Fold Lycopene cyclase domain-containing protein.
Amino acid sequence: MSLYLLINIIILSIPLLLTFAPKVYYYRKMKSLFIAILVISSLFIVWDALATARGDWAFNEKYIVGYRIFGLPLEEILFFLTVPYSCIFLYETFRTYLKKREVFYSVHLYNILAILCFAISILFINRAYTATVFIITGVLLTSARFCFKSLFSSSIYWLYIVVCTLLFAIFNHVLTSFPVVAYSPQAITGLRVGTIPIEDFFYNYSLLSLYLIIYLFAENKWGREQ
Protein backbone atom coordinates (compact mmCIF):
# COMPACT_ATOMS: atom_id res chain seq x y z
CA MET A 1 0.00 0.00 0.00
CA SER A 2 1.33 3.43 -0.92
CA LEU A 3 1.89 6.11 1.72
CA TYR A 4 -0.47 8.52 -0.02
CA LEU A 5 -3.21 5.88 -0.19
CA LEU A 6 -2.73 5.15 3.51
CA ILE A 7 -3.17 8.85 4.29
CA ASN A 8 -6.46 8.86 2.36
CA ILE A 9 -7.67 5.82 4.29
CA ILE A 10 -6.78 7.41 7.63
CA ILE A 11 -8.57 10.64 6.69
CA LEU A 12 -11.73 8.74 5.73
CA SER A 13 -11.76 6.00 8.36
CA ILE A 14 -13.48 7.55 11.40
CA PRO A 15 -16.13 9.58 9.51
CA LEU A 16 -16.93 6.51 7.41
CA LEU A 17 -17.33 4.33 10.49
CA LEU A 18 -19.61 6.94 12.09
CA THR A 19 -21.72 7.63 9.00
CA PHE A 20 -24.73 5.85 10.53
CA ALA A 21 -24.20 7.11 14.08
CA PRO A 22 -27.31 8.57 15.77
CA LYS A 23 -27.96 12.30 16.16
CA VAL A 24 -25.66 13.33 13.31
CA TYR A 25 -27.27 10.91 10.81
CA TYR A 26 -24.60 11.73 8.26
CA TYR A 27 -25.91 9.15 5.79
CA ARG A 28 -28.97 11.34 5.32
CA LYS A 29 -26.83 14.22 4.05
CA MET A 30 -25.37 12.38 1.07
CA LYS A 31 -27.31 14.27 -1.59
CA SER A 32 -25.98 17.66 -0.51
CA LEU A 33 -22.51 16.21 0.02
CA PHE A 34 -22.50 14.61 -3.43
CA ILE A 35 -23.38 17.94 -5.06
CA ALA A 36 -20.63 19.76 -3.16
CA ILE A 37 -18.06 17.14 -4.13
CA LEU A 38 -19.21 17.06 -7.75
CA VAL A 39 -19.00 20.84 -8.18
CA ILE A 40 -15.91 21.77 -6.18
CA SER A 41 -13.83 18.62 -6.64
CA SER A 42 -14.35 18.77 -10.41
CA LEU A 43 -13.04 22.34 -10.54
CA PHE A 44 -10.06 21.66 -8.30
CA ILE A 45 -9.16 18.43 -10.11
CA VAL A 46 -9.04 20.34 -13.40
CA TRP A 47 -6.80 22.95 -11.78
CA ASP A 48 -4.66 20.19 -10.23
CA ALA A 49 -4.27 18.40 -13.56
CA LEU A 50 -3.30 21.61 -15.40
CA ALA A 51 -0.86 22.61 -12.67
CA THR A 52 0.72 19.15 -12.65
CA ALA A 53 1.09 19.19 -16.42
CA ARG A 54 2.64 22.66 -16.20
CA GLY A 55 5.11 21.43 -13.59
CA ASP A 56 3.91 23.46 -10.57
CA TRP A 57 4.19 20.29 -8.49
CA ALA A 58 5.02 16.62 -8.99
CA PHE A 59 4.31 13.35 -7.19
CA ASN A 60 7.02 11.00 -5.99
CA GLU A 61 6.50 7.61 -7.63
CA LYS A 62 7.94 5.97 -4.54
CA TYR A 63 4.87 6.89 -2.48
CA ILE A 64 2.00 6.33 -4.93
CA VAL A 65 0.54 3.19 -6.49
CA GLY A 66 1.28 4.40 -10.00
CA TYR A 67 -2.21 4.54 -11.52
CA ARG A 68 -3.04 7.93 -12.99
CA ILE A 69 -6.25 9.66 -14.07
CA PHE A 70 -5.96 12.89 -16.08
CA GLY A 71 -2.26 12.77 -15.29
CA LEU A 72 -2.94 12.70 -11.55
CA PRO A 73 -2.17 9.80 -9.19
CA LEU A 74 -5.19 7.81 -8.11
CA GLU A 75 -4.52 8.94 -4.53
CA GLU A 76 -4.71 12.60 -5.55
CA ILE A 77 -8.16 12.03 -7.05
CA LEU A 78 -9.22 10.20 -3.88
CA PHE A 79 -8.05 13.21 -1.85
CA PHE A 80 -10.91 15.22 -3.38
CA LEU A 81 -13.36 12.61 -2.13
CA THR A 82 -11.99 11.70 1.30
CA VAL A 83 -11.31 15.28 2.45
CA PRO A 84 -14.80 16.72 1.83
CA TYR A 85 -16.46 13.56 3.15
CA SER A 86 -14.54 13.80 6.39
CA CYS A 87 -14.52 17.57 6.82
CA ILE A 88 -18.24 18.03 6.21
CA PHE A 89 -18.79 15.20 8.70
CA LEU A 90 -16.93 17.30 11.27
CA TYR A 91 -19.08 20.33 10.41
CA GLU A 92 -22.26 18.30 10.87
CA THR A 93 -20.98 16.93 14.16
CA PHE A 94 -20.24 20.43 15.44
CA ARG A 95 -23.59 21.67 14.21
CA THR A 96 -25.38 18.82 15.96
CA TYR A 97 -23.71 19.04 19.36
CA LEU A 98 -22.71 22.70 19.71
CA LYS A 99 -24.76 25.84 19.95
CA LYS A 100 -24.22 28.30 17.13
CA ARG A 101 -22.96 31.71 18.24
CA GLU A 102 -22.25 34.84 16.29
CA VAL A 103 -18.64 35.93 16.07
CA PHE A 104 -17.05 39.20 15.02
CA TYR A 105 -17.86 40.14 11.44
CA SER A 106 -16.66 43.27 9.68
CA VAL A 107 -17.38 44.14 6.08
CA HIS A 108 -14.38 46.44 6.06
CA LEU A 109 -12.08 43.69 7.34
CA TYR A 110 -13.15 41.31 4.57
CA ASN A 111 -12.71 44.07 2.00
CA ILE A 112 -9.18 44.74 3.23
CA LEU A 113 -8.27 41.05 3.27
CA ALA A 114 -9.68 40.54 -0.22
CA ILE A 115 -7.73 43.53 -1.58
CA LEU A 116 -4.59 42.20 0.11
CA CYS A 117 -5.06 38.79 -1.52
CA PHE A 118 -5.52 40.35 -4.96
CA ALA A 119 -2.45 42.53 -4.41
CA ILE A 120 -0.35 39.47 -3.49
CA SER A 121 -1.61 37.64 -6.59
CA ILE A 122 -0.47 40.58 -8.75
CA LEU A 123 2.86 40.84 -6.93
CA PHE A 124 3.53 37.14 -7.58
CA ILE A 125 1.84 36.92 -10.96
CA ASN A 126 4.79 34.90 -12.29
CA ARG A 127 4.37 32.29 -9.52
CA ALA A 128 1.49 30.25 -10.86
CA TYR A 129 0.40 28.51 -7.65
CA THR A 130 0.77 31.63 -5.52
CA ALA A 131 -1.15 33.85 -7.92
CA THR A 132 -3.95 31.36 -8.48
CA VAL A 133 -4.55 30.51 -4.83
CA PHE A 134 -4.62 34.16 -3.74
CA ILE A 135 -7.03 35.07 -6.52
CA ILE A 136 -9.37 32.30 -5.38
CA THR A 137 -9.04 33.35 -1.74
CA GLY A 138 -9.68 36.96 -2.69
CA VAL A 139 -12.84 36.03 -4.59
CA LEU A 140 -14.00 33.96 -1.62
CA LEU A 141 -13.43 36.83 0.82
CA THR A 142 -15.19 39.22 -1.53
CA SER A 143 -18.18 36.89 -1.67
CA ALA A 144 -18.24 36.94 2.14
CA ARG A 145 -18.97 40.63 1.82
CA PHE A 146 -22.02 40.10 -0.38
CA CYS A 147 -23.43 36.60 0.06
CA PHE A 148 -22.36 34.66 3.11
CA LYS A 149 -22.49 36.95 6.15
CA SER A 150 -24.47 34.41 8.22
CA LEU A 151 -21.87 31.71 7.53
CA PHE A 152 -18.76 33.82 8.08
CA SER A 153 -20.19 35.18 11.33
CA SER A 154 -20.94 31.68 12.65
CA SER A 155 -18.84 30.11 15.41
CA ILE A 156 -19.51 26.67 13.91
CA TYR A 157 -17.95 27.71 10.60
CA TRP A 158 -14.78 28.98 12.26
CA LEU A 159 -14.50 25.92 14.49
CA TYR A 160 -14.79 23.80 11.34
CA ILE A 161 -12.04 25.84 9.69
CA VAL A 162 -9.72 25.73 12.70
CA VAL A 163 -10.05 21.99 13.39
CA CYS A 164 -9.75 21.02 9.73
CA THR A 165 -6.73 23.30 9.32
CA LEU A 166 -4.98 21.64 12.26
CA LEU A 167 -5.65 18.22 10.76
CA PHE A 168 -4.55 19.51 7.35
CA ALA A 169 -1.26 20.68 8.84
CA ILE A 170 -0.56 17.20 10.22
CA PHE A 171 -1.31 15.34 7.00
CA ASN A 172 0.24 17.94 4.71
CA HIS A 173 3.41 17.87 6.77
CA VAL A 174 3.67 14.15 5.98
CA LEU A 175 3.01 14.78 2.30
CA THR A 176 5.61 17.53 2.02
CA SER A 177 8.31 16.09 4.28
CA PHE A 178 8.96 12.76 2.55
CA PRO A 179 8.04 14.34 0.09
CA VAL A 180 5.04 12.72 -1.57
CA VAL A 181 4.39 16.05 -3.31
CA ALA A 182 7.25 18.28 -4.43
CA TYR A 183 6.66 21.89 -5.48
CA SER A 184 8.48 23.71 -8.22
CA PRO A 185 10.41 26.76 -6.87
CA GLN A 186 9.07 28.68 -9.88
CA ALA A 187 5.44 28.15 -8.78
CA ILE A 188 5.60 29.28 -5.13
CA THR A 189 7.06 32.07 -3.01
CA GLY A 190 9.27 29.67 -1.09
CA LEU A 191 7.83 30.70 2.27
CA ARG A 192 7.00 27.63 4.35
CA VAL A 193 5.59 26.67 7.70
CA GLY A 194 7.86 23.77 8.48
CA THR A 195 7.78 21.81 5.23
CA ILE A 196 4.41 23.19 4.09
CA PRO A 197 4.34 25.99 1.47
CA ILE A 198 2.44 28.99 2.84
CA GLU A 199 0.18 28.84 -0.22
CA ASP A 200 -1.19 25.49 0.93
CA PHE A 201 -2.88 27.11 3.93
CA PHE A 202 -4.81 29.49 1.69
CA TYR A 203 -5.58 26.64 -0.69
CA ASN A 204 -6.92 24.60 2.22
CA TYR A 205 -9.01 27.49 3.56
CA SER A 206 -10.58 28.18 0.16
CA LEU A 207 -11.21 24.50 -0.55
CA LEU A 208 -12.87 23.85 2.81
CA SER A 209 -15.00 26.99 2.55
CA LEU A 210 -16.15 26.28 -0.99
CA TYR A 211 -17.12 22.70 -0.15
CA LEU A 212 -19.18 23.96 2.77
CA ILE A 213 -20.80 26.80 0.81
CA ILE A 214 -21.99 24.48 -1.95
CA TYR A 215 -23.04 21.86 0.60
CA LEU A 216 -25.18 24.35 2.50
CA PHE A 217 -26.55 25.81 -0.72
CA ALA A 218 -27.66 22.34 -1.84
CA GLU A 219 -29.12 21.68 1.58
CA ASN A 220 -31.14 24.91 1.52
CA LYS A 221 -32.21 24.33 -2.07
CA TRP A 222 -33.59 20.85 -1.58
CA GLY A 223 -34.29 20.95 2.14
CA ARG A 224 -32.27 19.64 5.03
CA GLU A 225 -32.48 15.86 5.26
CA GLN A 226 -33.89 14.65 8.57
User: Anything to note?
Assistant: Residues 30-54 form the longest helix (25 residues). The chain has a mean pLDDT of 94. The beta strands are 57-59, 68-69, 72-73, 181-183, 192-193, 196-197.
